[in-house]
Design a protein that fits this description.
alpha/beta; binds nicotinamide-adenine-dinucleotide; binds zinc ion
């Protein structure tokens, strides 16, 4: 007996219904000259009696974190601590899973919070974890590094490294609050401080001539000193840099409106430099090398005068930022252009600084030739090995 379908298929039955998706929200980033132990009332208010998990590295835990948790507990806030080794090589899904496992153990629910107290690695892991736990719980960031305070901790992105690719898995997930406390920088290592200085220089070069002048006016190493001592000048520099960064990010927070981003200055070659070094070269150092390289390319392209190019190189070297490493070679440069084109939806948009303080975008990888890379890298190599004194390039391309 043959079985007939009760209802014959109807190929002409085709319908569609559009689903509008929108989530309009905002978050506050604030800076305070106070110590973290003097911000308890503020944090307790933000927690609003909801359970919270503070995630931090062992270093930050012993310097600030365990004390903060103990004080919050005394204030009656239901907080727990999770100490996590947060290094570039442990910025993985496994670290995110650890945070999620702890959240599950503590039975955190939808209204609970994660608090990321740490550098960019820690807040990146916390942001990804917060976006996943119960499909999204709130998180507060208290960035403890300079990079965190002017960049990694203040936007809406979180990411982990995957299969050898930097920040390959991640999310756009806004924080509930961000609290910048410059006094936390007093214990930061010189190297990590310099990493953040590279990002401040980036913001100054792409959009803020006043900030650039302020940075140039500081004698050698004075910037590190100001930042270490929680001076009001340091707080102003951090705030100016952080708000400049936010002004750049805000119109395109989800990076879906524009693939041209001035804040990508210093971030085309740097990811490959970091990865090629097995992450022994820090993010800020790689950004400094990238800015040095692109400044020379900008001069080759007729966008930057030799004098302005040298001002940029001098600012970097005066602040003891590296401009060259053996990893930086022509092959890496070429590969970086391909990787950036893939990352930026098929458009290269290499950001080059220009004389008047703005930026210019190079759209075709063919506009930068291998001889240009070779000359620029060779020059940076001599500069990287020499003192901060600049030599004329004198090469014809
Ligand atoms: N999400 C974003 O938008 C974004 C933006 C820029 C960078 N990042 C990421 O940020 C990471 C770099 O972050 P980072 O430069 O802050 O480094 P980091 O997070 O690796 O922290 C550096 C080290 O400093 C220690 N430390 C932190 N604060 C300290 C303090 N106050 N005193 C003493 N020691 C302290 C930490 O224990 C850690 O070992 C990279 O992974 C990068 O990809 C993310
Ligand atoms: Zn950066």
């Amino acid at each position: 007996m043959s079985s007939k379908p009760i209802c014959a298929p109807n190929p002409s039955f085709n319908r569609a219904r559009e689903v509008r998706v929108s989530q309009d929200r905002s978050y506050e980033v604030q800076i305070s000259g106070a110590k973290i132990s003097d911000c308890l009332d503020t944090i307790v208010q933000w927690l609003d009696d909801k359970p919270a998990l503070v995630v931090m590295t062992p270093t930050v835990a012993s310097l600030y974190g365990m004390d903060l948790v103990a004080r919050l507990e005394k204030h009656g806030a239901p907080v727990s601590a999770q100490i996590l080794p947060c290094t570039e090589s442990s910025k993985t899904l496994a670290a995110v899973e650890l945070v999620c496992a702890r959240a599950a153990e503590l039975k955190l629910e939808r209204r609970s919070l994660l608090i990321g107290l740490g550098g960019g690695v820690c807040t990146d892991i916390v942001t990804v974890a917060a976006s996943l736990i119960r499909r999204g719980i709130r998180h507060i960031r208290i960035p403890t590094t300079l990079i965190g305070q002017v960049d990694a901790g203040i936007g809406i992105k979180g990411a982990v490294n995957f299969n050898g690719r930097k920040s390959y898995l991640g999310c756009f997930y806004p924080p509930h609050r961000v609290l910048i406390l410059p006094h936390l920088l007093s214990t930061l290592s010189t190297d990590h401080l310099q990493d953040g200085i590279a990002e401040i220089i980036k913001i100054a070069l792409v959009r803020d001539a006043v900030l650039l002048a302020q940075l140039e006016a500081l004698p050698s190493h004075m910037l590190s000193y100001e930042l270490r001592t929680n001076s009001s000048k340091a707080a102003e520099l951090i705030w100016r840099s952080a708000t400049g960064m936010l002004d750049e990010l805000e119109p395109n927070l989800y990076e879906d409106k524009q693939s041209k981003r001035a804040v990508d200055f210093g971030h085309t070659f740097s990811p490959l430099i970091e990865a090629a070094s097995g992450y022994s070269i820090s993010h800020g150092s790689a950004v400094a090398m990238d800015m040095a390289l692109t400044s020379i390319l900008a001069e080759y392209c007729g966008l930057l005068s030799v004098a302005k190019r040298d001002r940029i190189l001098t600012l970097l070297t005066t602040n003891r930022l590296p401009v060259w490493a053996p990893e930086l070679d022509v092959n890496l440069c070429r590969e970086a252009l391909h990787a950036a084109t893939l990352h930026r939806c098929g458009e290269l948009n290499l950001v080059l600084p220009v004389n008047d303080g703005g930026v210019h975008y190079i759209s075709s990888a063919g506009d930068i030739t291998d001889p240009m890379f070779a000359h620029a890298v060779a020059y940076l190599k001599t500069l990287g090995r020499a003192s901060t004194r600049l030599k004329p390039i004198g090469t014809e391309l």
